[in-house]
Amino acid sequence: QVQLQESGGDSVQSGGSLRLSCAASGYGYRGNCMGWFRQAPGKVREGVALLTKDGSALYADSVKGRFTISQDNAKNTLTLQMNSLKPEDTAMYYCAASYRLCSWFTDQFAHWGQGTQVTVSS
Asked: In this model, does residue 30 exceed pLDDT 70?
Protein backbone atom coordinates (compact mmCIF):
# COMPACT_ATOMS: atom_id res chain seq x y z
CA GLN A 1 0.00 0.00 0.00
CA VAL A 2 1.38 3.37 -1.02
CA GLN A 3 1.64 5.92 1.74
CA LEU A 4 2.71 9.54 1.60
CA GLN A 5 3.23 11.43 4.84
CA GLU A 6 3.95 15.14 4.90
CA SER A 7 5.63 17.02 7.72
CA GLY A 8 7.24 20.36 8.37
CA GLY A 9 4.27 22.70 8.25
CA ASP A 10 4.24 25.53 10.75
CA SER A 11 3.30 29.14 11.38
CA VAL A 12 5.91 31.68 10.31
CA GLN A 13 6.22 35.38 9.70
CA SER A 14 6.28 36.86 6.23
CA GLY A 15 9.77 36.53 4.75
CA GLY A 16 10.50 33.38 6.71
CA SER A 17 11.38 29.90 5.50
CA LEU A 18 10.05 26.39 5.94
CA ARG A 19 11.10 22.99 4.69
CA LEU A 20 8.38 20.46 3.99
CA SER A 21 9.09 16.75 3.74
CA CYS A 22 7.12 13.89 2.27
CA ALA A 23 8.03 10.39 3.35
CA ALA A 24 6.95 7.84 0.77
CA SER A 25 6.51 4.12 1.26
CA GLY A 26 4.91 1.25 -0.53
CA TYR A 27 6.21 1.12 -4.05
CA GLY A 28 9.41 2.98 -4.66
CA TYR A 29 7.85 6.34 -4.72
CA ARG A 30 9.20 8.02 -7.81
CA GLY A 31 6.76 6.68 -10.34
CA ASN A 32 6.82 9.20 -13.16
CA CYS A 33 6.11 12.37 -11.25
CA MET A 34 6.05 13.62 -7.69
CA GLY A 35 4.71 16.97 -6.68
CA TRP A 36 3.53 19.44 -4.10
CA PHE A 37 0.10 21.00 -4.22
CA ARG A 38 -1.64 23.41 -1.90
CA GLN A 39 -5.17 24.37 -1.04
CA ALA A 40 -6.26 27.50 0.77
CA PRO A 41 -9.72 27.76 2.39
CA GLY A 42 -12.38 28.33 -0.23
CA LYS A 43 -9.98 27.83 -3.13
CA VAL A 44 -9.24 24.98 -5.49
CA ARG A 45 -6.18 22.82 -5.00
CA GLU A 46 -3.29 24.14 -7.09
CA GLY A 47 0.06 22.81 -8.12
CA VAL A 48 3.14 24.35 -6.54
CA ALA A 49 6.08 22.29 -7.75
CA LEU A 50 6.59 19.08 -9.71
CA LEU A 51 9.59 16.79 -10.08
CA THR A 52 9.80 14.72 -13.24
CA LYS A 53 11.22 11.23 -13.47
CA ASP A 54 14.45 12.56 -14.97
CA GLY A 55 14.85 15.03 -12.12
CA SER A 56 13.59 18.16 -13.81
CA ALA A 57 11.69 20.62 -11.64
CA LEU A 58 8.62 22.60 -12.63
CA TYR A 59 7.24 25.48 -10.61
CA ALA A 60 4.09 27.54 -10.50
CA ASP A 61 4.77 31.15 -11.46
CA SER A 62 3.75 32.29 -8.00
CA VAL A 63 6.59 30.41 -6.31
CA LYS A 64 9.40 30.55 -8.88
CA GLY A 65 12.63 31.73 -7.35
CA ARG A 66 11.35 31.15 -3.81
CA PHE A 67 10.55 27.41 -3.60
CA THR A 68 12.78 24.45 -4.45
CA ILE A 69 11.62 20.87 -4.88
CA SER A 70 14.07 18.03 -4.43
CA GLN A 71 14.29 14.36 -3.55
CA ASP A 72 16.43 12.09 -1.44
CA ASN A 73 16.25 8.66 -3.02
CA ALA A 74 18.11 7.00 -0.18
CA LYS A 75 15.50 8.17 2.29
CA ASN A 76 12.51 7.97 -0.08
CA THR A 77 11.76 11.58 0.75
CA LEU A 78 10.48 14.46 -1.33
CA THR A 79 11.16 17.92 0.03
CA LEU A 80 9.98 21.46 -0.63
CA GLN A 81 12.21 24.27 0.56
CA MET A 82 10.16 27.43 0.85
CA ASN A 83 11.90 30.78 1.24
CA SER A 84 10.65 34.36 1.31
CA LEU A 85 7.24 33.18 2.36
CA LYS A 86 4.26 35.45 1.84
CA PRO A 87 0.83 35.50 3.48
CA GLU A 88 -0.66 34.27 0.20
CA ASP A 89 1.37 31.08 0.61
CA THR A 90 -0.86 30.15 3.53
CA ALA A 91 -2.52 26.82 2.73
CA MET A 92 -2.61 23.11 3.40
CA TYR A 93 0.25 21.58 1.45
CA TYR A 94 -0.08 18.11 -0.05
CA CYS A 95 2.44 15.68 -1.46
CA ALA A 96 1.28 13.65 -4.46
CA ALA A 97 2.58 10.86 -6.67
CA SER A 98 1.67 10.04 -10.25
CA TYR A 99 2.33 7.15 -12.61
CA ARG A 100 1.80 9.49 -15.54
CA LEU A 101 3.85 12.28 -17.06
CA CYS A 102 4.02 15.39 -14.93
CA SER A 103 0.92 17.54 -15.12
CA TRP A 104 -0.63 20.29 -13.05
CA PHE A 105 -3.96 18.46 -13.13
CA THR A 106 -4.75 16.91 -9.76
CA ASP A 107 -6.69 14.01 -11.29
CA GLN A 108 -3.44 12.76 -12.83
CA PHE A 109 -2.07 11.96 -9.38
CA ALA A 110 -2.97 8.57 -7.94
CA HIS A 111 -1.69 9.01 -4.42
CA TRP A 112 -1.98 11.85 -1.93
CA GLY A 113 -0.79 12.55 1.57
CA GLN A 114 -2.96 13.99 4.33
CA GLY A 115 -1.40 17.43 4.14
CA THR A 116 0.57 19.74 6.38
CA GLN A 117 -0.55 23.27 7.27
CA VAL A 118 1.54 26.30 6.42
CA THR A 119 0.47 29.64 7.84
CA VAL A 120 2.31 32.85 7.00
CA SER A 121 1.46 35.98 8.93
CA SER A 122 2.22 39.52 7.82
From this structure: no
